[in-house]
């Protein structure tokens, strides 16, 4: 005969303050803690409203305004341009912490951060100087690159036309992440047979941005539709060349991996706190307090191990991006050195994708093993970890990353330098 255990057991320990541990590994630089301390109170404010905003579909306009006012979007700029000369590992580490607060916000500034890299590495001096000035003033850039239409792979249906009245932009974009919050939108378009990149003011006549993203995750990124109808384009808004920064592909993917690592850290801390305070136990459990149940502690430990590993892998890959950046900024670096550094950045990030994705997706499911059925209530918001991780992981599918790594390892096949989606 079994003996019933009361559903609720009072414990003064369960009411004790909970402090998440900080054993996430060494910081990416000696100054990182000082740098991060500026933003951690802001990250805490963003995290405090994340569940409610997700449940009510409240876009993070205010949260992004906080980041702008704090100078977060200028981190990579020099000090005389309002930045702090942040390295790429420092930036990625901060994005992991911001991702632990809300990955919607990370994704909303992803296009801006990539545009900053474009400007920092641009060989066109006048174009670079113009945009460094605007970025230093706090301009925020959104994206309108991808399309959901019938254009063939490698081309765009959106086109830039040369008319008697000047340049005109027409087209429709999807996955326009961050554009609803931005001052300028970075657009890819066809100019005849050539692909061109240009920046258009968010509120220019003929520009419409619609929040119609209907994904089950990352719902607050405004990754919906942007429509350009006969938009008048000034010549200086068009970049002189169609080249992007050399490590663009691994950079954009690493921002996604930073979001995943942030999810891992957030859910690990979240579950640990819930287990610490939980006072309902199962009659067939192993202790009178959930916090003392060795099987539950094992689950919590597994979640923290996954988060630790994801964090370490992402930061390691960020060093490869930094090496690529430095090689391309070094005026005496050989072309062979630059190509080697860039290839390593691609491969290291590709190798990271499957590992980090699997760790975080598994953790976002396993977390429920440490809690009760009440953890599935929508008001708890725990499902957002899996929904967001699954949505982020669906960008640039990991199966192709694994194949690319295998092709490089076996045959020396270089990873692709750009990704496009469209009709075959």
Automatic annotation (TrEMBL):
Listed GO biological process terms: L-leucine catabolic process
Keyword S-adenosyl-L-methionine: no
Domain (Acyl-CoA dehydrogenase C-terminal): residue spans on this chain: 256-395
Keyword Aminoacyl-tRNA synthetase among record annotations: no
UniProtKB keywords: Oxidoreductase
Molecular function GO terms recorded: 3-methylbutanoyl-CoA dehydrogenase activity; flavin adenine dinucleotide binding
Domain of life: Bacteria
Annotated region described as Disordered, given as residue ranges: 1-22
Acyl-CoA dehydrogenase/oxidase N-terminal domain segment(s): 45-138
Pfam families, per database record: Acyl-CoA_dh_2 (PF08028), Acyl-CoA_dh_N (PF02771)
InterPro entries given in the database record: Acyl-CoA_DH_C, Acyl-CoA_Oxase/DH_mid-dom_sf, AcylCo_DH-like_C, AcylCoA_DH/ox_N, AcylCoA_DH/ox_N_sf, AcylCoA_DH/oxidase_NM_dom_sf
Name used for this protein in its record: Acyl-CoA dehydrogenase
């Amino acid at each position: 005969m079994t003996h019933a255990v009361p559903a609720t057991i009072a414990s003064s320990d369960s009411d004790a303050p909970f402090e998440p541990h900080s054993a996430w590994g060494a910081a990416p630089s000696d100054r990182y803690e000082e740098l991060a301390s500026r933003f951690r109170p802001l990250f805490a404010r963003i995290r405090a409203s994340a569940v409610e905003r997700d449940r009510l579909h409240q876009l993070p306009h205010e949260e992004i305004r906080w980041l702008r006012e704090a100078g977060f979007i200028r981190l990579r700029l020099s000090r005389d341009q309002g930045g702090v000369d942040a390295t790429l590992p420092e930036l990625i580490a901060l994005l992991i912490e911001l991702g632990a607060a809300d990955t919607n916000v990370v994704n909303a500034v992803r296009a801006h951060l990539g545009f900053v890299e474009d400007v920092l590495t641009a060989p066109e001096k006048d174009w670079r100087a113009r945009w460094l000035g605007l970025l230093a003033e706090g301009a925020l850039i959104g994206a309108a690159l991808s399309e959901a239409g019938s254009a063939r792979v490698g081309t765009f249906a959106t086109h830039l036309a040369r008319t008697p009245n000047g340049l005109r932009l027409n087209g429709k974009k999807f996955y326009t992440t961050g554009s609803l919050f931005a001052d300028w939108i970075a657009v890819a378009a066809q100019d005849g047979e050539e692909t061109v990149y240009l920046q258009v003011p968010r509120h220019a006549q003929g520009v419409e941005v619609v929040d119609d993203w209907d994904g089950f995750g990352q719902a607050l990124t405004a990754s919906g539709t942007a429509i350009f109808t006969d938009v008048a384009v000034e010549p200086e808004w068009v970049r002189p060349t169609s080249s992007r920064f050399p490590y663009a592909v691994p950079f954009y993917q690493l921002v996604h991996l930073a979001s995943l690592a942030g999810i891992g850290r957030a859910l690990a801390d979240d579950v640990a706190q819930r287990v610490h305070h939980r006072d309902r136990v199962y009659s067939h459990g192993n202790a009178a307090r959930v916090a003392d149940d060795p099987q539950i502690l094992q689950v919590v430990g597994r979640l923290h191990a996954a988060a630790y590993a994801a964090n370490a892998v992402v930061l390691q890959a960020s060093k490869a991006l930094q090496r690529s950046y430095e090689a391309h900024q070094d005026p005496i670096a050989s072309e062979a050195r630059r190509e080697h550094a860039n290839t390593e950045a691609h491969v290291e990030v590709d190798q990271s994708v499957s590992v980090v994705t699997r760790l975080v997706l598994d953790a976002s499911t396993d977390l429920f093993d440490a809690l009760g059925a009440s953890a599935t209530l929508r008001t708890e918001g725990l499902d957002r970890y899996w929904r967001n991780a699954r949505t982020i992981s669906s960008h640039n599918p990991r199966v192709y990353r694994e194949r690319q790594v295998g092709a490089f390892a076996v045959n020396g096949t270089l990873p692709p330098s750009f990704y496009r989606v469209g009709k075959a």
